[in-house]
């Protein structure tokens, strides 16, 4: 009987891969789940296990070939008797399995969950349990940190956490294995025996490959190194047995200028007594992403900021008049953010350039408003998006802002909740900021900065009066938004807030 070896699912939006390395050759005996070959996509490396025990009869897709999902890679001829060499490991594995069954537990893999669209890796931030701990089903085992959100990994079943395979600080790919656990109340000893037998079987191919220098690198990696003029010792391999993959070459190339940067501008010498009192902490992935995106925004967009000020008297009076009734009916407090959101939606209809984005040589106009509301969290700044905010009432907006804000502070936001924004509001006033220039959130073309409300003397109808004033700042991409449009937008926001009735009359 022949069993086909096919390309597994490669992940969302990934349709093809390159055959990087075959660990077995035709005629080799293989065990169930033993690694046969390694595939390389533009995002991750995928290992293909054997679907059955037997003999690798032929290889259909050779190293270096590009294959699609479910394409045929090779064939395995199943055999009832694989020979003396296979008998011993199978017996050991059978005994280990019997021991597991006697203990009432089976080995379960703890895997990295789906991290969200376009997110392919995460860093293991914290293990909440240690090896040998008893856990309940769905009890949190560890926390992963991506460049956008934190992801909690629950236990897939009740049992005992066995071996932790990815320690804190390690980077793991989507779908990678984090740990092993034993279900039920089984003891850890049989599980370790099973791990030992499986581990030996898994590493058998590597044992026959000799020293590290004999490891065959991925064909695509060899080509990339040749094109870049890199030698093998300049690249750190992350593949099986230190094998260099295409991604490793890309990382080496991107790291080269970064390594040279400190030489061009070295850090000033620090006195020994000061150095002893310093603390060096690695930036979180979220903070690294924030830093990179903000710098990219400055480098890419022709960013400019225009300012105005708004008299908050009418909004504050309206809020004070209806806040109790509003909260009683809708179950949420009436804040200023819903007024500013409504005012921005009103202005975006008149100046659609601020709600558009550049795509190559095209301008994409959005006939909807997905409002990003910047929120500060202990981990850093995040921007949850309220979709179709132009169709929502004051109450709906306040409820959405409250719910998104709480999820942001708790680190519970999903990737989908932070994607697709067309315009952003940032409220630095909650921290006491009097005036600032917000940075664009690419690919958006505009962001409104709110600030502290401060009583100031103002000339009103020839008389000096004390009014609650707020400075507003609109940062915009001058490549698509002209100065006239930016100023008009900010003036419309000011008019709507100084006379909220204009929002009701659509004026």
CATH topology of the largest domain: Chloramphenicol Acetyltransferase
Instruction: Please tell me the total number of domains.
Output: 4
The separation of the N and C termini measures 77 Å
**The CATH C-level class name of the largest domain:** Alpha Beta
Number of distinct helices: 11
Task: State the CATH architecture of the largest domain.
Answer: 2-Layer Sandwich
What does the largest sheet look like? 7 strands, mixed
Enzyme class: transferase
Cofactor: (R)-lipoate
Keywords: Acyltransferase, Lipoyl, Transferase, Tricarboxylic acid cycle
Family: Belongs to the 2-oxoacid dehydrogenase family.
Layout of strands and helices, then pairs:
Blueprint: E1 2-6, E2 16-22, E3 29-30, E4 35-40, E5 45-49, E6 54-59, E7 66-68, E8 72-77, H1 84-103, E9 107-111, E10 121-127, E11 134-135, E12 140-145, E13 150-154, E14 159-164, E15 171-173, E16 177-183, H2 188-207, H3 219-228, H4 246-264, H5 272-275, H6 285-300, E17 303-311, H7 313-330, H8 337-350, E18 356-359, E19 362-365, E20 371-373, E21 375-377, E22 380-382, E23 385-386, H9 394-409, E24 423-427, E25 446-450, E26 454-460, E27 463-477, H10 483-498, H11 501-505
Helix pairs in contact: 1-2, 3-4, 8-9, 8-10
